[in-house]
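Dear colleagues,

As part of the handover before I leave the project, I'm documenting each prediction I ran so the next person doesn't have to rerun anything. This entry is a single chain, and its sequence is reproduced below.
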Amino acid sequence: MPSILFVFTSAANTLTGEPTGWYLPEAAHPYYVLAPHAKIDFAAPKGPNPPLDQASVDAYKGDEECIKFLADETVKEKLTNAKLLTDVKVSDYDAIFYPGGWGPVLDLAFDPINAKLASDFWTAGKLVASVCHGPAALVDAVDADGKSIFAGRNFTGFSDAEEEYLGTTKRAPFLLEDKIISLGGLFTKADKVFGSHVVVDGRLITGQNPSSATDTGKAILKALE
């Protein structure tokens, strides 16, 4: 059975002061696609109990899998015992996955321990996956030659158009789409704002937004099989 590491943000507030954290469906939806087929561990820069974005709880209060995730005793235990990034052994896993929320743009994007972890997963030939703002965690991830893992590769993530639609362009230090394009990434997005869109380019798997979370999980599962 393959093993997957979910890496959550530990950031609890945006640059403009709003509470943030990890975004509920972006963890819950892929989790229930993958959990029957893989061993899953959780980690975060500050370890146990990474902050959950309450706005995502409110927005998805009618979503069955989100409700299930919040009540799931196994999930609660994994969150309570989330590893520090320094305690992760790359050799224990087949894939790393970063759920979104604005949090990753605030902490994981600037965390040298995370940058090394993501780079080590990549150079070890593992799957590297993320959804929504999750790709921000990979902006300093490099291949064996020190080149960005996005250089010349297709990717997606939370788009400038989606940030503008929500009026959230000032919440984080950079806009994901612009930043990764500047690293040489080739950006694509859904035809409509908040449409599902997943890009698989070799071992790099990215999903655009919360609507893409289930399909991102399915793409990870297919790649692991």
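The first helix runs from residue 24 to 34. Strands lie at 3-7, 39-44, 83-84, 95-98, 127-131, 154-155, 186-187, 198-201, 204-207.

All the best with the project,
I.
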